[in-house]
Amino acid sequence: MRALIALAAWAALGAWAGPALGCTVGVATQGGLGINGSGDTLSSENVLSGGLVSVLTVTNGLFDPAYTVFVSAPSLVPPPGYHGTPTVLVAYTAAGVGVAKTQPMTASATSFDAPAAALAVVLTLQSRIVSPDGFASGAYQSKVTVTCAPQ
Amino acid sequence: MRAAVAFALLALLAAPAGAQSLSPMRNAGATPSDIKGFRLVVGNPYRTRLIFTVRLTDERFTGAAADAAASTTEFPLAPGASRPVIVEFRIGPNMKERTIGVCISPKDLPGPLLPRVCGLYTGRRAGFGG
Question: Which residues of A110-133 are buried (b: 16+ CB within 10 A; e: fewer)?
Answer without folding.
Answer: bebebebebbbbbbbbbbbbebee
